[in-house]
Queue: 2 jobs
Job 1
Amino acid sequence: MTTTTLVDRYVYTALRRVPEQQRADIDRELRASIEDAVEARVEAGEAREQAIENTLTDLGDPSRLADNYANRPQFLIGPELFPVWRRLMTMMFTIVLPVVVAVTVIVQLFDDPDFGKVIGGAIGTILTVGAHLAFWTTALFAVVERTGYGKAELRTTWSLKDLPRYEPGAMSRMQLAAFLVWPVIVVAALVLQQFTFTDVPVLDPELWSFWLPLLIVVTALRGAWGVWVYRLRTWTRASAVANAVLVLAAAIPLIWLLATDQLFNPAFAPLADAGLGEDKQWITVVAIAGVGLSALWDVVDTTIRIERSMRGLPTKVAGTGGSYNFG
Protein backbone atom coordinates (compact mmCIF):
# COMPACT_ATOMS: atom_id res chain seq x y z
CA MET A 1 0.00 0.00 0.00
CA THR A 2 1.43 3.42 -0.97
CA THR A 3 1.06 6.52 1.14
CA THR A 4 -0.87 8.28 -1.63
CA THR A 5 -3.38 5.45 -1.78
CA LEU A 6 -4.03 5.65 1.96
CA VAL A 7 -4.71 9.39 1.82
CA ASP A 8 -6.83 8.98 -1.32
CA ARG A 9 -8.93 6.27 0.29
CA TYR A 10 -9.59 8.52 3.29
CA VAL A 11 -10.47 11.54 1.15
CA TYR A 12 -12.68 9.54 -1.21
CA THR A 13 -14.58 8.04 1.73
CA ALA A 14 -15.25 11.50 3.13
CA LEU A 15 -16.27 12.98 -0.23
CA ARG A 16 -18.93 10.29 -0.77
CA ARG A 17 -21.03 11.86 2.02
CA VAL A 18 -20.97 15.50 0.88
CA PRO A 19 -23.02 17.16 -1.87
CA GLU A 20 -21.39 16.90 -5.29
CA GLN A 21 -21.11 20.66 -5.76
CA GLN A 22 -18.97 20.90 -2.60
CA ARG A 23 -16.62 18.00 -3.32
CA ALA A 24 -13.93 19.88 -5.29
CA ASP A 25 -13.48 22.53 -2.58
CA ILE A 26 -13.55 20.00 0.26
CA ASP A 27 -11.11 17.75 -1.63
CA ARG A 28 -8.54 20.55 -1.84
CA GLU A 29 -9.15 21.73 1.73
CA LEU A 30 -8.97 18.27 3.25
CA ARG A 31 -5.82 17.24 1.35
CA ALA A 32 -4.12 20.51 2.32
CA SER A 33 -5.06 19.98 5.96
CA ILE A 34 -3.73 16.41 5.91
CA GLU A 35 -0.49 17.48 4.23
CA ASP A 36 0.12 20.29 6.72
CA ALA A 37 -0.45 17.91 9.66
CA VAL A 38 1.84 15.28 8.13
CA GLU A 39 4.63 17.80 7.48
CA ALA A 40 4.39 19.03 11.08
CA ARG A 41 4.78 15.48 12.35
CA VAL A 42 7.70 14.77 10.01
CA GLU A 43 9.45 17.91 11.21
CA ALA A 44 8.89 16.69 14.77
CA GLY A 45 10.81 13.52 13.93
CA GLU A 46 8.16 10.98 12.86
CA ALA A 47 8.66 8.83 9.79
CA ARG A 48 6.44 9.95 6.92
CA GLU A 49 4.49 6.68 6.76
CA GLN A 50 3.81 6.79 10.50
CA ALA A 51 2.99 10.52 10.32
CA ILE A 52 0.32 9.89 7.69
CA GLU A 53 -1.26 7.04 9.65
CA ASN A 54 -1.25 9.07 12.87
CA THR A 55 -2.72 12.12 11.09
CA LEU A 56 -5.57 10.16 9.55
CA THR A 57 -6.22 8.38 12.85
CA ASP A 58 -6.46 11.73 14.66
CA LEU A 59 -8.87 13.05 12.02
CA GLY A 60 -11.17 10.14 12.90
CA ASP A 61 -14.08 8.60 11.03
CA PRO A 62 -14.21 10.19 7.54
CA SER A 63 -18.01 9.94 7.55
CA ARG A 64 -18.21 12.08 10.67
CA LEU A 65 -15.68 14.50 9.19
CA ALA A 66 -17.82 14.76 6.05
CA ASP A 67 -20.88 15.60 8.14
CA ASN A 68 -18.92 18.43 9.76
CA TYR A 69 -17.82 19.78 6.37
CA ALA A 70 -21.40 19.59 5.03
CA ASN A 71 -22.80 21.13 8.22
CA ARG A 72 -25.03 18.07 8.57
CA PRO A 73 -26.35 17.25 12.08
CA GLN A 74 -25.07 14.03 13.62
CA PHE A 75 -28.17 13.42 15.71
CA LEU A 76 -31.76 12.53 14.98
CA ILE A 77 -33.38 15.41 16.87
CA GLY A 78 -31.27 18.26 18.22
CA PRO A 79 -31.57 20.12 21.52
CA GLU A 80 -33.52 22.99 19.94
CA LEU A 81 -36.39 20.80 18.74
CA PHE A 82 -36.21 18.14 21.46
CA PRO A 83 -38.46 19.94 24.01
CA VAL A 84 -41.12 20.50 21.31
CA TRP A 85 -40.86 16.84 20.25
CA ARG A 86 -41.17 15.68 23.87
CA ARG A 87 -44.27 17.81 24.52
CA LEU A 88 -45.92 16.54 21.33
CA MET A 89 -45.07 12.92 22.15
CA THR A 90 -46.52 13.36 25.65
CA MET A 91 -49.75 14.72 24.19
CA MET A 92 -49.91 11.89 21.65
CA PHE A 93 -49.55 9.16 24.28
CA THR A 94 -51.73 10.74 26.96
CA ILE A 95 -54.56 12.06 24.77
CA VAL A 96 -54.56 10.70 21.22
CA LEU A 97 -53.64 7.08 22.05
CA PRO A 98 -56.25 6.68 24.85
CA VAL A 99 -58.92 8.16 22.56
CA VAL A 100 -58.08 5.75 19.74
CA VAL A 101 -58.06 2.82 22.17
CA ALA A 102 -61.41 3.90 23.65
CA VAL A 103 -63.00 4.19 20.20
CA THR A 104 -61.60 0.78 19.26
CA VAL A 105 -63.03 -0.79 22.40
CA ILE A 106 -66.45 0.82 21.82
CA VAL A 107 -66.56 -0.39 18.21
CA GLN A 108 -65.53 -3.92 19.30
CA LEU A 109 -68.22 -3.95 21.99
CA PHE A 110 -70.86 -3.06 19.44
CA ASP A 111 -69.53 -5.53 16.86
CA ASP A 112 -68.76 -8.52 19.12
CA PRO A 113 -68.80 -7.98 22.91
CA ASP A 114 -66.51 -10.93 23.61
CA PHE A 115 -64.23 -10.08 26.56
CA GLY A 116 -61.16 -11.72 25.05
CA LYS A 117 -61.60 -9.94 21.73
CA VAL A 118 -62.11 -6.59 23.44
CA ILE A 119 -58.93 -6.95 25.53
CA GLY A 120 -56.94 -8.31 22.58
CA GLY A 121 -58.13 -5.48 20.34
CA ALA A 122 -57.21 -2.89 22.97
CA ILE A 123 -53.69 -4.31 23.45
CA GLY A 124 -53.16 -4.59 19.70
CA THR A 125 -54.29 -1.00 19.21
CA ILE A 126 -51.94 0.25 21.95
CA LEU A 127 -48.95 -1.48 20.38
CA THR A 128 -49.76 -0.67 16.74
CA VAL A 129 -50.98 2.90 17.12
CA GLY A 130 -48.32 3.67 19.74
CA ALA A 131 -45.56 2.49 17.41
CA HIS A 132 -46.95 4.55 14.53
CA LEU A 133 -47.32 7.68 16.67
CA ALA A 134 -43.75 7.39 17.93
CA PHE A 135 -42.24 6.58 14.54
CA TRP A 136 -44.00 9.16 12.37
CA THR A 137 -43.72 11.97 14.92
CA THR A 138 -39.99 11.32 15.33
CA ALA A 139 -39.51 10.98 11.56
CA LEU A 140 -41.25 14.31 10.99
CA PHE A 141 -39.01 16.09 13.49
CA ALA A 142 -35.92 14.45 11.98
CA VAL A 143 -36.88 15.83 8.56
CA VAL A 144 -37.45 19.29 10.04
CA GLU A 145 -34.06 19.07 11.81
CA ARG A 146 -32.20 18.31 8.59
CA THR A 147 -34.10 20.44 6.09
CA GLY A 148 -35.12 23.35 8.30
CA TYR A 149 -38.50 23.35 6.55
CA GLY A 150 -41.24 24.35 8.99
CA LYS A 151 -38.76 25.06 11.78
CA ALA A 152 -39.66 28.75 11.87
CA GLU A 153 -43.30 27.84 12.56
CA LEU A 154 -42.32 25.81 15.65
CA ARG A 155 -41.94 27.88 18.80
CA THR A 156 -38.63 26.66 20.16
CA THR A 157 -37.82 29.60 22.45
CA TRP A 158 -38.72 29.54 26.12
CA SER A 159 -40.23 32.38 28.14
CA LEU A 160 -41.54 32.88 31.67
CA LYS A 161 -45.06 32.39 30.33
CA ASP A 162 -44.20 28.73 29.79
CA LEU A 163 -43.77 28.07 33.52
CA PRO A 164 -46.55 25.77 34.81
CA ARG A 165 -49.21 27.30 36.99
CA TYR A 166 -49.53 25.53 40.34
CA GLU A 167 -52.51 27.44 41.69
CA PRO A 168 -55.16 25.08 43.10
CA GLY A 169 -57.40 24.04 40.26
CA ALA A 170 -55.69 25.98 37.49
CA MET A 171 -56.21 24.03 34.26
CA SER A 172 -53.19 23.49 32.00
CA ARG A 173 -53.38 23.31 28.22
CA MET A 174 -52.80 19.56 28.38
CA GLN A 175 -55.67 19.15 30.85
CA LEU A 176 -57.91 21.32 28.70
CA ALA A 177 -57.12 19.22 25.63
CA ALA A 178 -57.90 16.03 27.54
CA PHE A 179 -61.08 17.59 28.90
CA LEU A 180 -62.27 18.51 25.40
CA VAL A 181 -61.54 15.09 23.91
CA TRP A 182 -64.19 13.21 25.85
CA PRO A 183 -67.14 15.43 24.83
CA VAL A 184 -66.12 14.85 21.22
CA ILE A 185 -66.01 11.08 21.82
CA VAL A 186 -69.40 11.05 23.58
CA VAL A 187 -71.14 13.09 20.88
CA ALA A 188 -69.52 11.01 18.12
CA ALA A 189 -70.55 7.76 19.84
CA LEU A 190 -74.16 8.93 20.27
CA VAL A 191 -74.42 9.84 16.61
CA LEU A 192 -72.45 6.97 15.11
CA GLN A 193 -74.25 4.26 17.09
CA GLN A 194 -77.39 5.34 15.24
CA PHE A 195 -75.96 5.21 11.72
CA THR A 196 -72.60 3.41 11.55
CA PHE A 197 -71.64 0.78 14.10
CA THR A 198 -74.49 -1.67 13.63
CA ASP A 199 -77.54 -2.17 11.42
CA VAL A 200 -79.74 -1.71 14.49
CA PRO A 201 -78.98 1.25 16.83
CA VAL A 202 -77.71 0.39 20.31
CA LEU A 203 -79.79 3.11 21.97
CA ASP A 204 -83.54 3.38 21.56
CA PRO A 205 -84.22 5.54 18.45
CA GLU A 206 -87.21 7.07 20.27
CA LEU A 207 -84.73 8.97 22.47
CA TRP A 208 -83.84 11.23 19.51
CA SER A 209 -87.13 13.00 20.07
CA PHE A 210 -85.69 14.69 23.20
CA TRP A 211 -83.23 12.85 25.44
CA LEU A 212 -80.30 12.26 23.09
CA PRO A 213 -80.30 15.85 21.75
CA LEU A 214 -80.40 16.99 25.40
CA LEU A 215 -77.35 14.84 26.26
CA ILE A 216 -75.49 16.15 23.21
CA VAL A 217 -76.20 19.77 24.18
CA VAL A 218 -75.15 19.17 27.81
CA THR A 219 -71.97 17.42 26.66
CA ALA A 220 -71.11 20.32 24.36
CA LEU A 221 -71.75 22.76 27.21
CA ARG A 222 -69.33 20.77 29.37
CA GLY A 223 -66.66 21.36 26.75
CA ALA A 224 -67.46 25.07 26.73
CA TRP A 225 -67.32 25.06 30.54
CA GLY A 226 -63.78 23.60 30.38
CA VAL A 227 -62.67 26.42 28.07
CA TRP A 228 -64.23 28.96 30.45
CA VAL A 229 -62.41 27.56 33.49
CA TYR A 230 -59.14 27.43 31.55
CA ARG A 231 -59.47 31.13 30.68
CA LEU A 232 -60.31 31.97 34.30
CA ARG A 233 -57.06 30.26 35.41
CA THR A 234 -58.69 29.31 38.70
CA TRP A 235 -61.82 27.82 40.22
CA THR A 236 -64.67 30.08 41.32
CA ARG A 237 -67.98 29.42 43.01
CA ALA A 238 -69.75 30.39 39.79
CA SER A 239 -67.81 27.73 37.87
CA ALA A 240 -68.64 25.18 40.56
CA VAL A 241 -72.36 25.92 40.33
CA ALA A 242 -72.22 25.68 36.54
CA ASN A 243 -70.32 22.40 36.79
CA ALA A 244 -72.83 20.91 39.24
CA VAL A 245 -75.75 21.94 37.02
CA LEU A 246 -74.18 20.39 33.92
CA VAL A 247 -73.17 17.19 35.74
CA LEU A 248 -76.67 16.73 37.13
CA ALA A 249 -78.22 17.64 33.77
CA ALA A 250 -76.40 14.67 32.27
CA ALA A 251 -76.54 12.22 35.19
CA ILE A 252 -80.22 12.54 36.13
CA PRO A 253 -81.60 11.74 32.65
CA LEU A 254 -79.19 8.80 32.31
CA ILE A 255 -80.19 7.39 35.68
CA TRP A 256 -83.88 7.84 34.89
CA LEU A 257 -83.55 6.19 31.46
CA LEU A 258 -81.64 3.27 32.99
CA ALA A 259 -84.11 2.87 35.83
CA THR A 260 -87.11 2.87 33.47
CA ASP A 261 -85.39 0.58 30.95
CA GLN A 262 -85.68 3.16 28.16
CA LEU A 263 -82.02 3.69 27.31
CA PHE A 264 -81.13 0.68 25.15
CA ASN A 265 -82.88 -0.49 22.01
CA PRO A 266 -84.77 -3.75 22.68
CA ALA A 267 -84.17 -4.74 19.05
CA PHE A 268 -80.38 -4.56 19.38
CA ALA A 269 -79.36 -8.18 18.72
CA PRO A 270 -76.57 -8.67 21.31
CA LEU A 271 -78.90 -7.46 24.07
CA ALA A 272 -81.94 -9.29 22.74
CA ASP A 273 -80.04 -12.57 22.43
CA ALA A 274 -78.14 -12.29 25.70
CA GLY A 275 -80.96 -13.73 27.76
CA LEU A 276 -79.95 -11.79 30.86
CA GLY A 277 -83.17 -12.46 32.72
CA GLU A 278 -82.85 -11.60 36.42
CA ASP A 279 -79.24 -10.51 35.91
CA LYS A 280 -80.48 -7.52 33.94
CA GLN A 281 -81.76 -5.89 37.14
CA TRP A 282 -78.34 -6.18 38.81
CA ILE A 283 -76.60 -4.81 35.71
CA THR A 284 -78.98 -1.86 35.74
CA VAL A 285 -78.30 -1.20 39.42
CA VAL A 286 -74.54 -1.30 38.84
CA ALA A 287 -74.84 1.08 35.88
CA ILE A 288 -76.98 3.51 37.87
CA ALA A 289 -74.54 3.37 40.77
CA GLY A 290 -71.64 4.02 38.40
CA VAL A 291 -73.31 7.07 36.87
CA GLY A 292 -74.34 8.41 40.28
CA LEU A 293 -70.95 7.93 41.93
CA SER A 294 -69.15 9.44 38.95
CA ALA A 295 -71.37 12.52 39.09
CA LEU A 296 -70.95 12.80 42.86
CA TRP A 297 -67.17 12.57 42.61
CA ASP A 298 -67.08 15.24 39.91
CA VAL A 299 -69.09 17.68 42.03
CA VAL A 300 -67.17 16.93 45.24
CA ASP A 301 -63.76 17.17 43.56
CA THR A 302 -64.64 20.52 42.00
CA THR A 303 -65.90 21.81 45.35
CA ILE A 304 -62.65 20.79 47.07
CA ARG A 305 -60.63 22.60 44.41
CA ILE A 306 -62.69 25.73 44.95
CA GLU A 307 -62.24 25.70 48.72
CA ARG A 308 -58.49 25.27 48.41
CA SER A 309 -58.35 28.09 45.91
CA MET A 310 -60.55 30.45 47.94
CA ARG A 311 -58.66 29.78 51.18
CA GLY A 312 -55.20 29.87 49.61
CA LEU A 313 -54.33 26.43 50.96
CA PRO A 314 -51.00 24.87 49.89
CA THR A 315 -51.02 22.75 46.78
CA LYS A 316 -49.24 19.43 46.37
CA VAL A 317 -46.86 19.51 43.43
CA ALA A 318 -46.20 16.10 41.90
CA GLY A 319 -42.56 15.06 41.97
CA THR A 320 -41.45 17.56 44.62
CA GLY A 321 -42.46 15.66 47.74
CA GLY A 322 -44.07 18.70 49.31
CA SER A 323 -46.91 21.21 49.32
CA TYR A 324 -46.51 24.84 48.39
CA ASN A 325 -48.61 27.93 48.69
CA PHE A 326 -48.66 29.87 45.45
CA GLY A 327 -51.13 32.51 46.50
Job 2
Amino acid sequence: MKQPPRKIGAPRKSGPPPPKPVARPDRDDDDGPDDPARLRIRRLDANRYALLIPITALDRQEDIDEVKVMIAAGELDIARDELLYLVSDCRGFLEAHNLLGELALEEHNVSLAQGHFGFAYEIGVDSLPPGFRGRLPANKEYNGAFFLAGRGVARCLIARGQIDKGREVLELLARLDPQEATIRGLLAELKEREPTN
Protein backbone atom coordinates (compact mmCIF):
# COMPACT_ATOMS: atom_id res chain seq x y z
CA MET A 1 0.00 0.00 0.00
CA LYS A 2 1.32 3.42 -0.92
CA GLN A 3 2.26 5.67 2.01
CA PRO A 4 0.48 9.04 2.23
CA PRO A 5 2.74 11.93 1.25
CA ARG A 6 4.80 13.42 4.06
CA LYS A 7 3.78 16.91 5.10
CA ILE A 8 6.41 19.34 3.93
CA GLY A 9 8.54 20.46 6.84
CA ALA A 10 7.65 17.40 8.93
CA PRO A 11 10.50 15.17 10.12
CA ARG A 12 11.17 12.04 8.11
CA LYS A 13 9.56 8.94 9.63
CA SER A 14 11.02 6.20 7.47
CA GLY A 15 13.51 5.54 4.75
CA PRO A 16 17.26 5.75 4.74
CA PRO A 17 18.83 8.36 6.99
CA PRO A 18 20.20 11.49 5.31
CA PRO A 19 23.92 11.47 4.50
CA LYS A 20 26.20 12.71 7.27
CA PRO A 21 28.62 15.59 6.72
CA VAL A 22 32.24 14.68 6.23
CA ALA A 23 33.15 16.25 9.56
CA ARG A 24 31.44 18.17 12.32
CA PRO A 25 34.29 19.52 14.42
CA ASP A 26 33.83 22.37 16.82
CA ARG A 27 35.23 25.69 15.77
CA ASP A 28 38.75 26.24 17.03
CA ASP A 29 37.79 29.64 18.42
CA ASP A 30 34.38 28.62 19.82
CA ASP A 31 34.50 29.45 23.49
CA GLY A 32 30.86 30.32 24.05
CA PRO A 33 27.47 28.65 23.66
CA ASP A 34 26.54 27.45 20.20
CA ASP A 35 24.81 30.08 18.08
CA PRO A 36 22.16 28.47 15.85
CA ALA A 37 23.02 30.93 13.06
CA ARG A 38 26.77 30.28 13.23
CA LEU A 39 28.12 27.67 10.87
CA ARG A 40 30.89 25.30 11.81
CA ILE A 41 34.11 25.47 9.84
CA ARG A 42 36.71 22.81 9.16
CA ARG A 43 40.24 22.96 7.83
CA LEU A 44 40.74 21.32 4.45
CA ASP A 45 44.52 21.76 4.39
CA ALA A 46 47.14 24.29 5.49
CA ASN A 47 45.23 27.45 4.64
CA ARG A 48 41.93 26.32 3.08
CA TYR A 49 38.69 25.92 5.01
CA ALA A 50 35.09 24.88 4.42
CA LEU A 51 31.87 26.01 6.02
CA LEU A 52 29.73 23.02 6.99
CA ILE A 53 26.03 22.64 6.34
CA PRO A 54 24.07 22.62 9.62
CA ILE A 55 22.70 19.21 10.57
CA THR A 56 19.15 20.59 10.67
CA ALA A 57 19.59 21.86 7.09
CA LEU A 58 21.05 18.54 6.01
CA ASP A 59 18.00 16.79 7.46
CA ARG A 60 15.75 19.11 5.41
CA GLN A 61 17.27 18.56 1.95
CA GLU A 62 14.18 16.63 0.87
CA ASP A 63 12.11 19.71 1.77
CA ILE A 64 14.35 21.93 -0.39
CA ASP A 65 13.89 19.51 -3.28
CA GLU A 66 10.10 19.76 -2.83
CA VAL A 67 10.34 23.58 -2.74
CA LYS A 68 12.22 23.54 -6.05
CA VAL A 69 9.40 21.45 -7.57
CA MET A 70 6.87 23.99 -6.25
CA ILE A 71 8.84 26.86 -7.77
CA ALA A 72 9.07 25.06 -11.12
CA ALA A 73 5.28 24.54 -10.98
CA GLY A 74 4.71 28.24 -10.27
CA GLU A 75 3.46 27.65 -6.71
CA LEU A 76 5.53 30.57 -5.42
CA ASP A 77 3.43 31.49 -2.39
CA ILE A 78 3.48 27.94 -1.04
CA ALA A 79 7.22 27.67 -1.77
CA ARG A 80 7.88 30.96 0.05
CA ASP A 81 5.88 29.82 3.09
CA GLU A 82 7.83 26.56 3.22
CA LEU A 83 11.16 28.39 2.90
CA LEU A 84 10.21 30.79 5.69
CA TYR A 85 9.36 27.79 7.85
CA LEU A 86 12.70 26.18 7.02
CA VAL A 87 14.76 29.26 7.93
CA SER A 88 12.78 29.72 11.16
CA ASP A 89 13.64 26.11 12.01
CA CYS A 90 17.29 26.50 10.94
CA ARG A 91 18.64 30.05 10.75
CA GLY A 92 21.89 28.82 9.17
CA PHE A 93 20.09 27.23 6.20
CA LEU A 94 21.81 29.34 3.53
CA GLU A 95 20.24 27.52 0.60
CA ALA A 96 16.74 28.38 1.88
CA HIS A 97 17.71 32.04 2.40
CA ASN A 98 19.15 32.14 -1.13
CA LEU A 99 15.96 30.68 -2.62
CA LEU A 100 13.94 33.34 -0.77
CA GLY A 101 16.22 35.93 -2.35
CA GLU A 102 15.65 34.44 -5.80
CA LEU A 103 11.87 34.46 -5.28
CA ALA A 104 12.01 38.13 -4.27
CA LEU A 105 13.98 38.91 -7.44
CA GLU A 106 11.36 37.07 -9.51
CA GLU A 107 8.86 39.58 -8.11
CA HIS A 108 11.24 42.49 -8.83
CA ASN A 109 11.59 43.21 -5.10
CA VAL A 110 15.32 43.97 -4.99
CA SER A 111 15.15 45.36 -1.46
CA LEU A 112 13.62 42.14 -0.08
CA ALA A 113 16.04 40.02 -2.11
CA GLN A 114 18.93 42.03 -0.64
CA GLY A 115 17.60 41.25 2.83
CA HIS A 116 17.44 37.51 2.23
CA PHE A 117 20.81 37.27 0.48
CA GLY A 118 22.33 39.65 3.01
CA PHE A 119 21.18 37.57 5.96
CA ALA A 120 22.77 34.43 4.48
CA TYR A 121 25.96 36.32 3.62
CA GLU A 122 26.25 37.75 7.14
CA ILE A 123 25.79 34.28 8.66
CA GLY A 124 28.78 33.09 6.62
CA VAL A 125 30.93 36.11 7.50
CA ASP A 126 30.01 35.88 11.20
CA SER A 127 30.94 32.18 11.19
CA LEU A 128 34.57 32.95 10.32
CA PRO A 129 37.02 33.32 13.21
CA PRO A 130 38.06 36.89 14.06
CA GLY A 131 40.94 38.01 11.83
CA PHE A 132 40.41 35.08 9.45
CA ARG A 133 43.09 35.08 6.74
CA GLY A 134 42.49 31.66 5.23
CA ARG A 135 40.89 30.70 1.95
CA LEU A 136 37.32 29.46 1.42
CA PRO A 137 37.25 27.66 -1.95
CA ALA A 138 33.84 28.46 -3.43
CA ASN A 139 33.42 24.90 -4.72
CA LYS A 140 33.91 23.13 -1.38
CA GLU A 141 31.15 21.97 0.97
CA TYR A 142 28.81 24.79 2.11
CA ASN A 143 31.10 27.55 0.79
CA GLY A 144 29.12 27.58 -2.47
CA ALA A 145 25.90 28.64 -0.70
CA PHE A 146 27.82 31.40 1.07
CA PHE A 147 29.34 32.67 -2.20
CA LEU A 148 25.93 32.56 -3.90
CA ALA A 149 24.53 34.71 -1.07
CA GLY A 150 27.44 37.15 -1.38
CA ARG A 151 27.01 37.50 -5.14
CA GLY A 152 23.28 37.98 -4.64
CA VAL A 153 23.62 40.72 -2.03
CA ALA A 154 26.34 42.47 -4.06
CA ARG A 155 24.17 42.53 -7.18
CA CYS A 156 21.23 43.88 -5.17
CA LEU A 157 23.37 46.60 -3.61
CA ILE A 158 24.72 47.60 -7.02
CA ALA A 159 21.22 47.59 -8.55
CA ARG A 160 20.08 49.91 -5.76
CA GLY A 161 22.94 52.33 -6.44
CA GLN A 162 25.08 51.26 -3.46
CA ILE A 163 28.04 50.44 -5.67
CA ASP A 164 30.76 50.90 -3.04
CA LYS A 165 29.01 48.51 -0.65
CA GLY A 166 28.49 45.99 -3.44
CA ARG A 167 32.16 46.23 -4.40
CA GLU A 168 33.14 45.74 -0.74
CA VAL A 169 31.21 42.45 -0.62
CA LEU A 170 32.77 41.25 -3.89
CA GLU A 171 36.27 42.21 -2.73
CA LEU A 172 35.84 40.20 0.48
CA LEU A 173 34.70 37.19 -1.54
CA ALA A 174 37.66 37.64 -3.90
CA ARG A 175 40.04 37.61 -0.91
CA LEU A 176 38.42 34.43 0.40
CA ASP A 177 38.73 32.71 -2.99
CA PRO A 178 40.97 34.54 -5.48
CA GLN A 179 40.29 31.80 -8.08
CA GLU A 180 36.49 32.30 -8.17
CA ALA A 181 35.87 33.43 -11.76
CA THR A 182 32.36 34.86 -11.32
CA ILE A 183 33.50 37.20 -8.55
CA ARG A 184 36.50 38.35 -10.60
CA GLY A 185 34.17 38.95 -13.56
CA LEU A 186 31.76 41.04 -11.49
CA LEU A 187 34.64 43.13 -10.12
CA ALA A 188 35.94 43.65 -13.67
CA GLU A 189 32.46 44.80 -14.78
CA LEU A 190 32.38 47.31 -11.94
CA LYS A 191 35.82 48.61 -12.88
CA GLU A 192 34.70 49.11 -16.49
CA ARG A 193 31.74 51.18 -15.26
CA GLU A 194 33.96 53.58 -13.33
CA PRO A 195 34.38 56.94 -15.02
CA THR A 196 37.87 57.55 -16.37
CA ASN A 197 39.58 60.78 -15.30
